[in-house]
Amino acid sequence: MAKVDAYNVSGEVDYDKLIKEFGASLIDKKLAKKLDYPLVPELYFAHRDLDQIIKKKFAIITGRGPSMNMHMGHLILWKFMKHLQDKFNTHVFIPFSDDEKLLARGLSIEHVIRMDYENLLDIIALGYDPKKTEIMLDLVNMKQEVYNLAIQISSHMTANTVRSAMGFSPESNIGLQFYPAMQAAHILYPSMKLGVPTIVPIGVDQDVFVKLTRDVAKKVGLPKPGDIMSKFLPGLSGGKMSSSDPKTAIFTTDDYSTVKKKIMNAFTGGRDTVEEHRKHGCNTEVCVVCKYQTLLYQDFDIVKRCSEGEVLSGENKVNLLEKVWKELEAHQKAREKAKDKVGKFVPELEDYEPTAQ
């Protein structure tokens, strides 16, 4: 049986069942057309109040729990955010929940800020407009009004509500138990500042923070946020892609030989022999390479040819490798140039010099 919560995901996820349990709605064709993005609704598949909120002005917010390395699954979200910023001419707010990461993982402040910096480079490299983008690192440049809002929100959240929603026990540290109020402050800050509702593109496992925020929004005089929920991008080995398991993910800093090794070892739906593959074709339902071809590059043709046995799984891998490396090589060049732009987004880190961790 699948387990999906804000800190753990395991098992085979039944998304239709999950959305019914959450009380959310699937993104239909009409709404998908308004968003005008190839991964809607295949990956970004469900929402809360999105259809109503995008009728007027709104802001976009999604956070980042920093890790030492971002992977290509992370980039999908940030490219989607950039698309929404450009299409709807919206303000984008990106809070880094580095304080939560410190509380949950027992890391040092210095190490977490190094992770902030590395992840900042990946986000900035995608071309966000600094005039319409606000990045806040809780441990570095949190605004007083955000903290004040979190305190106000916390007065309307009971410990029992938070523990039930998040799965905390009485033994969980008090910092983590306070953190949903901080996340709610992140989500509602653009509403407080700009007077518009917010849309939160978010992984389905993080939807609990949006639900908690929706419950408290009116109590602090702000509009309920909506969200756009995404499915999990499969890992190279077939499970969930994870930063904690390098074999499952292609990281933005991987070199060519590492990327090649990972893709050539990826799980496929190929048959045991060439003869069987030519006869029966690839099982695209389980083939990670085929899923990447469609989700990352919308190449439905090669997947069809592989399913019919015309293309072998090894050939499919080589084709995917060429696409991934072309994208990744360009991103790594942009990432290097982003070092000179950090100060435009987070002035406090303009002269930051990362040290080995």
Task: List the SSEs and their pairings.
Layout: E1 3-4, E2 9-10, H1 15-22, E3 25-26, H2 29-35, E4 44-48, H3 50-53, E5 59-61, H4 72-88, E6 92-96, H5 98-105, H6 109-124, E7 133-137, H7 138-141, H8 144-154, H9 159-166, H10 174-194, E8 198-203, H11 207-217, E9 226-230, H12 256-264, H13 274-280, H14 288-297, H15 300-307, H16 313-338, H17 342-345
Parallel strand pairs: 5-6, 5-8, 6-7, 8-9
Antiparallel strand pairs: 1-2, 3-4, 4-9
Helix pairs in contact: 5-6, 6-16, 8-10, 10-11, 12-16, 14-15, 14-16
Residues in helix, %: 40-55%
Could you state the CATH homologous superfamily of the largest domain? HUPs
Overall average pLDDT:
92
Structure classification: alpha/beta
Helix/strand order, N-terminal first = EEHEHEHEHEHHEHHHHEHEHHHHHH
Number of strands: 9
Task: Detail the poorly predicted runs.
Answer: none
Largest sheet: 7 strands, mixed
Number of helices: 17
Shape-level CATH architecture of the largest domain: 3-Layer(aba) Sandwich
Shape: globular
Describe it for me?
The protein is of the alpha/beta class. The chain folds into two domains: 3-232, Rossmann fold, CATH 3.40.50; 246-338, Tyrosyl-Transfer RNA Synthetase. The chain contains 17 helices and nine strands. The protein has helices at 15-22, 29-35, 50-53, 72-88, 98-105, 109-124, 138-141, 144-154, 159-166, 174-194, 207-217, 256-264, 274-280, 288-297, 300-307, 313-338, 342-345; strands at 3-4, 9-10, 25-26, 44-48, 59-61, 92-96, 133-137, 198-203, 226-230. The strands form two sheets. The protein has a seven-stranded mixed sheet with strand order 3-4-9-8-5-6-7, sandwiched between helices. Strands 1-2 form a two-stranded antiparallel ribbon. α4 (72-88) links the parallel β5 (59-61) and β6. It is globular, with a radius of gyration of 21 Å. The mean pLDDT is 92.
